[in-house]
Design brief:
globular; single chain; mainly alpha
Amino acid sequence: MQNLYTKTSKFYIGFYIFFIFCAAMGDYKVLNVALGALPKIVSAGAIGLALLYILWSGNFKNFKVFYRFGLLFSSIIIGIIICSILIWIIDLQSFGYIMKGTSKISYQLLNIAIVLCAVYMFEEKAATYTFFGITGANIVIILIGAATTGIGGAVSDMIANITSFGASDVILNSPFIRAIEIHDITFVMGVYFIYFLFFAPHEKYRYLYAALSLFLFFAGLKRIAFLSMLLGVAFAVFCLVLGPKGKVRILFFTAFSIVAFCYFYIVIIQNGSFSRFCIEHEIELNGREKIYDYISNFYEVSPSYGGKGYEFCVQLLKSMHGTKDQVVDITAVHNDILKMYVEMGFWGFLFWITGYYVFQTHWFISRCGEKVAVCFMSINIYMLITYLTDNTMFYYWSSMVIRMIPMSFFFAPVKDPPLKSDNPLYLNNFDRWRYNKRKRDAKQQKKPKMILE
């Protein structure tokens, strides 16, 4: 019973992984069609575990840290809700419509609570234990799919999918590939690959976990995610060679560049340049350009544009489904940046994107240090590219891990690998460069405002 007091308890770890596994199994298409998002409620068991741990141990350590992380994450969601409510009131929307839109985004607050509880219980291991649960579900889903086609057929189809780089005809002709094409979990595996490769120094088997996440990433291959991961990895590698001051400069430059890029992206979608470019260069968008062109009739790029409120785009596409106005047989925008602009309006979008990338970058640098900020930006560069042509911004697992990973890394005891000698005279050129860099970095290192107890 004494072991129940510790955060390495097999009781807490086992139940947490089990809750995440059961919730992630809800992404299996058969269960997803039957139950929808209901299985994800099981992941709230993490909150129950955390409450049990508090009552059992009376441990309130680092609560101030968790309060600040919770305030950071929830302020963005609450900001979206408040902005939408103001828009709905001005547009004289019905109370039922307001409640439906609010409930659609409010589930993210539950997601944040689970993240805080997981890191409270397991600190730097929270992201890894979450990985175990999600990965376990992904592997089971693959095995279920392979059971219908046989191991040989499954391997053959998977190789064909990877070598064709996710060609539509391969996916359509393979029940196995369609069964294991788990969108949210596949995107999450790209995040975990970046995390284990660069930001999990405490993990003994980090490279094994990185390899496993890469395999599962390719098993459910998403073409846009492949480009995203390359950019996320490139950013992390580039930051490795920079000192603390260099990291801070590149972080702020990247954050402001993202804001400018996203605004430019909205402009070229609205004036049709994006669709024309894709058509001229034969870039396959699977009908997305038709949705973008259709939605462009409902907004304008101007400071006077006030927005339509959260979930407007989804409701718009659903309302035309099965009518003569239907442009494609899907009811999702597949462009989160466009969706946020249309729904939040010019100023709401500007405050949201500046707050998310610029303010959060500054917060992580000042509160947690530039290394944690690099972790935050690397995985968010990866996710940003997926936002451009997909609906990943508020995916359940994606939202969870991009919040949990920087927190886990903040709690991780980051230590530089030892040098062969402390005397630079006995070091080779590469180790001497590492030695000098560490000395220089130690002088430039900013002391984080948030200190763990």
